[in-house]
Amino acid sequence: MDEAGKFWYFPAMSQSPIPAWNLYGENSPFPDLLHIERIVDRAAGLDWRIAPHRHLHLHQLFLLTGGGGRLTFDGVAHELLPPVLVNLPRGVVHGFAFAAGTEGFVMTLPPADFPELFGPEAETAPALARAWAGPVPEGVGAGFAAIAAAHEGQGTFRRLRLRAAALDLGCAVAEAIGAPVVAPEVADPRMARFEALIRRELASGWQLADYARALGLSERHLRRLCRGATGLSAHAYLEGVRLREACRLLAYTRMQVQEVGFALGFDDPAYFGRVFARVTGLSPGAYRARLER
Predict the structure, then answer these.
(1) The predicted structure's pLDDT at residue 26
(2) Which is more confidently placed, 20 or 97?
(3) Residue 141 is part of which domain span?
(4) Considering the chain, what is the average pLDDT of its residues?
(5) Tell me, what CATH number does 287's domain have?
(6) Are 48 and 102 in contact (CB under 8 A)?
(7) 53: CATH
(8) Do 61 and 107 sit in the same domain of this protein?
(9) What is the full DSSP assignment across the chain?
């Protein structure tokens, strides 16, 4: 991974004792299809320790090929004896204490962009919803290496090749995990409905009261539900979903900045620019220009 100065940030917007990070403690929007890096490139600079945290909108896969250490997820410690594969769904509290010099990869995927793996109808979803560490199936190591090589390049059909390789790797991981012996704890379905409503009504300018009404809840109840499920206020969660979509539109489309704002329910382009700059530290135009560089 490049040094921190080359990333574009989201504030964590959380007062929870367990921080909610977007990418390894860096509150970065996710304009690329996926992210992959070597463990040494990130963990060595953190003294090989990563404090307990969670990712609200990201799924991570780790492959350790040398070294090792200890992983905790949801309060349970697991010794990591390479070669070992780790699956960490979004929302799972996890932390690492790596042995110095540990080798391997970490791949980060936004589940919303991979419905084939994580969507409600996906065959792989039940397995990938389990936090898990286990043996490495044949071919998985080569899969990580191929994705890393494709990620660094800018060749023809880069995104398509990355997507195909990530789907293939996700299937291999789900197959390795297998069917759950006990069904995993199901998150409150109202949170899934809340996020779906936010995405559906991006251009409508709905306020929190509108979402609460559509969910059949009081505003106070929705605030408590969101805080308990994510550690974020309902307003911060709503703002985060909207601004992640703003980053995607700026990165992947040629829509004008004011068109992006209108698409997300901001009637005043200047106000959209101020909100975006407050959250990311850049104006929408500067954000796009930095990505293009």
Answers:
(1) 46
(2) 97
(3) 32-177
(4) 82
(5) 1.10.10.60
(6) yes
(7) 2.60.120.280
(8) yes
(9) ---GGGS------B--SS-B-SBTTB-----SS-EEEEHHHHHGGGTTEEEEEB-SS-EEEEEEEE--EEEEETTEEEEE-SSEEEEE-TT--EEEEEPTT-EEEEEEE-GGG-HHHHSTT-TTHHHHTS-EEEPPPTTHHHHHHHHHHHHH---TTHHHHHHHHHHHHHHHHHHHH-S-SSPPPPPPHHHHHHHHHHHHTGGGT--HHHHHHHHT--HHHHHHHHHHHHSB-HHHHHHHHHHHHHHHHHHH----HHHHHHHTT-S-HHHHHHHHHHHHSS-HHHHHHHHH-
Mean pLDDT to the nearest integer, 112-130:
89
Q: Would you state the structure tokens that stand for residue 115, as one six-digit string?
A: 């419905």
Specify whether 140 is located in the same domain as 172: yes
Residues 95 and 198 in one domain: no
- Domain assignment present for residue 277? The answer is yes
Residue 210 counted as domain residue? yes
* Same domain, residue pair 166 and 38: yes
16: tokens are 């929870």
- Write the pLDDT tens digit of every residue in 160-185: 899 999 999 999 999 999 865 444 44
Residues 134 and 231 in one domain: no
Q: How many domains does the chain have?
A: 2
Distance, in Å, from the CA atom of 144 to the CA atom of 228, rounded to the nearest integer, reads 35
Residue 94 · residue 72 · CB < 8 Å: yes
Is this structure's pTM higher than 0.90? no
218 shares its domain with 114: no
**Domain boundary, last residue among 177, 209, 232:** 177
Question: What is the spatial distance between Cα 29 and Cα 58, in angstroms, rounded to a whole number?
Answer: 11
